[in-house]
Amino acid sequence: MGYSLSRLTLESDHFDPGNAAVHGVGNGQTPNKPLHNLEHEVAQLTKLRSAPNVRLTQIGPRRRDLPVSTVRMLAGREGNYSGRGGRFSSADRCHVLSRYLPVNGPWFVDRRSSRAYVSQFSADGSLFIAGFQFLFKCSLQDGHIKIYNVDREWKVQKNIHVQSMRWTVTDTSLSPDQRYLVYARMSPIVHMVDVGSSEVESRANITEIHEGLDFSSGDDGGYSFGIFSIKFSTDGHELVAGSSDDSIYVYDLEANKLSLRIPAHSSDVNTVCFSDESGHLIYSGSDDTLCKVWDRRCFNTTRKPAGVLTGHLEGIAFIDSKGDGRYFISNGKDQTIKLWDIRKMSSSPARTPGLRSSEWDYRWMDYPPQAKDMKHPSDQSVATYRGHSVLRTLIRCYFSPAYSTGQKYIYTGSHNCCVYIYDLVTGAQVATLKYHKAPVRDCSWHPYYPMLVSSSWDGTVAKWEFPGSGEAPASLYY
């Protein structure tokens, strides 16, 4: 490809949970302190979703401290040891596939002279969306959102030119039917584009219409706020957004109007997401350090959160739901990811004055060394993961895919140019992907294959895989 690509060196071609500390360490940091096998329901659920059938574990002698090998699993499947007619269960499949982490590479997807801010696979993995900041040297200040067709060798299906931007594309969201894409900027106007149209070069209101959805409520704030986070509802009929005016907005697409504004936090709402497919619960995270849970069924009456979760020492950069209506993770500017159980939430935040430093600003300052080991005295989180860094931009974190890993891992970008993968239960850093030359703001794991794509402020969108051919071993999917 004309470039010398650095690779992550592993002692073998698969991940051995029994020796997790060996992998991904070598970035000058010590491995994450283990959680000593998280004693919580989420740990048990994770093990159930990614552990092999007990009969397969009984085939021949093996070391108890090591997982059942792939060869043993395949032999057990052929011998129908699990009584499933020679087929893997979903847990069997996750046990095998979760050992094949997407750590080989990277290979280039794209490279531009502007910062990459957004990386998102579609729900079925057939499309990939990347959002880039505008070029300062361009008088029109155009930004780009590219939609790649993954199944057609990453051919650009649509190149969306975003005109008159304010700073950057802050977020994008693809509708559940994958027909429409909405993109947000530092503006109360969210734009919607027809992904399925035949127009490849989509220039705003020149080659095709980028419909503007006005989230301003007519209050005194007018056009003074921007949208940081935007998500389609699970039925595709609504959009929920978090904004710089400390609010959550809900836009009714069928009525084509704003249906709700909630003054949700005391500072910027950097992130919002739905808790599960029902769409009833919404999680929000803010620079006021709090995560809040909102029940849409009570929005119009209470205007108050269903609960508050306290534990971060600094602002919340991003939230990702496990999709079960109970658990979610948050990336914080206190340099930690936290795992939450909403059954532990309180009706109001704990009052702990004096913990935050008013003199520290993550946009241009390093995190104070004396604060790295601090813990909130009223921390309600289930677990905390450390090692990556959240500086300069709202870096995102996610659960690994349910289909291929049983959501066994957490992964995140980092200011120090790496992608980190943590074991959800033990907290160990199981891999650190090192290639980029600038902060990695976003990354996305393919929903079905061991493939991860990272986007960085160095302008590079890079693809990491196992085994490296673009396909997982076919026998694992039977």
Largest sheet: 5 strands, mixed
- The strand line-up of the biggest sheet is 2-3-4-5-9
Roughly what fraction of the amino acids lie in strands? Answer: 25-35%
Tell me the count of domains. Answer: 1
- CATH architecture field: 7 Propeller
Instruction: Find the structural class using helix and strand composition.
Output: mainly beta
Under CATH, the topology can be stated as Methylamine Dehydrogenase, Chain H
| Cα shape | globular
CATH top-level class: Mainly Beta
pLDDT < 50 stretches:
1-31, 137-141, 470-478
Radius of gyration: 22 Å
Can you give the helix content as a percent range?
under 10%
CATH superfamily: YVTN repeat-like/Quinoprotein amine dehydrogenase
Report the span from N to C terminus: 34 Å
What is the tally of helical segments?
A: 5
Task: Please give the number of β-strands.
Answer: 29
**Average pLDDT reading:** 83
Summarize this, please?
This protein is mainly beta. It has helices spanning 41-50, 70-78, 90-97, 299-302, 402-405, and strands spanning 104-111, 116-121, 127-132, 143-149, 155-162, 171-174, 180-184, 189-194, 201-203, 211-214, 227-232, 238-243, 247-252, 257-263, 269-274, 281-286, 291-295, 307-309, 316-321, 327-332, 336-341, 383-386, 397-399, 409-412, 418-423, 429-434, 440-445, 451-456, 460-465.
Give a structural overview.
This protein is mostly beta strands. It has a single domain, classed as YVTN repeat-like/Quinoprotein amine dehydrogenase (Methylamine Dehydrogenase, Chain H, 7 Propeller). 7% of the residues lie in helices and 34% in strands. It has five helices and 29 strands. Strands 2-3-4-5-9 form a five-stranded mixed sheet, with no helix packed on it. It has a four-stranded antiparallel sheet with strand order 1-29-28-27, with no helix packed on it. It has a four-stranded antiparallel sheet with strand order 6-7-8-10, with no helix packed on it. Strand 28 (451-456) and strand 29 form a beta hairpin. The longest helix is centred in the first third of the chain and has 10 residues, at 41-50. The two termini are 34 Å apart.
